[in-house]
Structures are given as C-alpha cells and as structure tokens.
Write a structure and sequence with these properties.
single chain; 305 residues; alpha+beta; Arc Repressor Mutant, subunit A; 2 domains; 11 helices; 20% strand
Length: 305
C-alpha cells in the first residue's frame, strides 16, 4: 500500500522502515502525538540512530530469525516486546517473515504521565531499552489496538485511550529512576504541587504567567523556563490539557448537557469547547459521548496548544 501523508513521517523509525524492505499494512495518527503502524518484513537490515521519539514494538507473528546486531544470540518471537527510547541506537537483521506493530510517542508523553502518575520530576525517569521482553499487559493492549478499525473515529478514540494506558504501563514497568542526575533548573516538587493543585481547583480560571509564577514564588521569566523544563511544555498548553482531561471525565455523566460540561471544565463557551475538543481528538464532544468513550485520558500533544 502507499504510505499515507501524515505526521507519522515525522517519526524517524517510521521513516526508516518506509525506506527499507518492510511492507506497511496500515498506519494511523491517533491524535495526542501518537502514531500506530502495522508492518511486515523479511530478509532485511535496518538501523535507528537517536530517533528523538520513543517506539514500542510488539511482534505479532514470526520474528524467530530476527536479532539486534549487538545481541545476535537473542531472537524475536510472537508476543515479544522491544522498547526503543528516543536516544536509542541499534542495528537489526530481519531473517524470516515477521509481522509487528509500532506505537510511536514523544518524550513529553512520559513527562506528562510522570507528573500525573508518580508526582515526580520527569527528568528523573528514563524509559529503558528493552529487547524481546515479555509483558503480558502491553501485549494484550497491542493486540486490542491491532483488532480495531483505525479508520472509524470511535475506534481511533479507543486506540488513543489504549495508547495512553500503554505509556502509563511503560512508565511504571520499564522506567528507570535517575537519582544521580542534577535536577537544578526545574520547579521544586512543592512548587509543582502548588501550581497543579491550583489549576485543578480553578478549572474556569485563565491565569496569567504572573499569577502562576506567584504560586511558585518566582519571576515570570524563571517560572516559564522552569515550568517547561519540569513538564516538557509551556504552562498554557498544560492548562488546556488539564481542561480537556476534565471535560472527558465529565462527558461520562449523561446527566450533564454539553454546555454544562463546557462550563464545569472551564471553557469560555460551548463552541470553544467544541473546537478545542475536535482539534485534540478529531471528533466533537457529542460524538465522543455517543461512542461511549467519554472517559478519555489526558491529552498529551500539540493539539492542545
């Protein structure tokens, strides 16, 4: 099939495979910066050099003659998992036929989930390089995603939710803390907590940079720089993601009208809510509610900016 013209081309691993002997079955940009691709390959050699994004690779069929050049004794197999961090470098030999799925996501996804799940400095955790690992939960999520029709909007939303869950599981199961690194430059844990608690307690507020900086007892200049270092994004983008996350949870309560959801989530109007939600998820809030996917996870991508 022809390669779709999508942001997937911005992912170096995806681009490398399009230039190899690999055959792309289908691919999809899920929103929130996530990309999915289903591949087949055989008798090939490929390499990745610091792609700048993370990749989760799960073997679905074959792979018994595939190995990484620096570990030739270890071979692939169905339901085996490889994690390729953003700074990863590797060279691969593909022997017999294999079928596999790739999930592509950006480093800021880990930063967002790290703050929300672990309440810790994102730079203190690094995604591990995994080679043919076993992880039943991530394999099950992968096979569920493969079974979906990615062309259908409601199924893309389901895949998006599973992708967020996969990142959280990777964070918990395959993340390594780095206590020896110097974390100077980012917000302290206390300052992060004060800012996030205030934002969640005032969903309708539109704080200025000065308002937020005051919560952290910093100048606007230093707060902006330190917030970006700690969260991996500007403060206004993080606030919009929090607002969209709250709205997704409220959509699950069918007693609330869409106007009430917009009001309680902090949007200026129903049309503002509709436009922001569509930009982030590719569907309207009404379509999301009708599909039964109201409780979507927090958005983590440029669509919220």
């Amino acid at each position: 099939m022809s390669v779709p013209s999508t942001p997937l081309h911005d992912n170096a691993v995806f681009s490398a495979l399009t230039q190899s002997r690999a055959s792309l079955e289908r691919a999809c940009a899920l929103g929130d910066g996530f990309g999915l691709a289903l591949w087949r390959n055989r008798m090939d050699d490929t390499a990745y050099a610091r792609p700048g994004h993370h990749t989760m690779s799960v073997y679905l069929e074959g792979g018994f003659s595939t190995y990484r050049r620096d570990a030739p004794d270890r071979k692939g197999a169905p339901d085996r998992l490889c994690l390729l961090p953003a700074d990863h470098e590797s060279r691969w030999h593909v022997g017999g036929t294999q079928r596999f799925m790739h999930l592509y996501f950006q480093p800021e996804h880990l930063a967002w989930h790290c703050v929300r799940v672990l309440d810790m400095e994102p730079r203190a955790l690094q995604l591990q390089d995994r080679l043919f690992a076993e992880d039943d939960a991530l394999v099950a999520l992968t096979r569920h995603m493969v079974a979906l029709d990615w062309e259908a909007p409601d199924m893309r939303m389901a895949a998006n939710a599973m992708a967020h869950e996969a990142v959280t599981r990777m964070l918990l199961s395959h993340g390594t803390r780095q206590p020896s690194v110097d974390w100077r430059g980012g917000l302290s844990a206390a300052a992060r907590r004060r800012v996030t608690e205030w934002v969640h307690a005032h969903p309708a507020a539109n704080p200025t940079l000065g308002d937020l900086a005051a919560l952290a007892d910093l100048s606007e200049y230093h707060f902006a720089r330190m917030f970006r270092i700690s969260f991996g994004m500007p403060a206004h983008v993080w606030i919009m993601r929090a607002r969209l996350s709250r709205a997704c949870g409220l959509l699950g309560d069918r007693r609330l009208s869409l106007q009430q959801v917009a009001d309680q989530a902090g949007f200026a109007s129903a049309s503002h809510f509709n436009n922001r939600f569509r930009a982030a998820y590719g569907v309207t809030p009404g379509q999301a509610r009708a599909s039964g996917m109201g409780a979507l996870p927090s958005i983590s991508a440029s669509q919220a900016s």
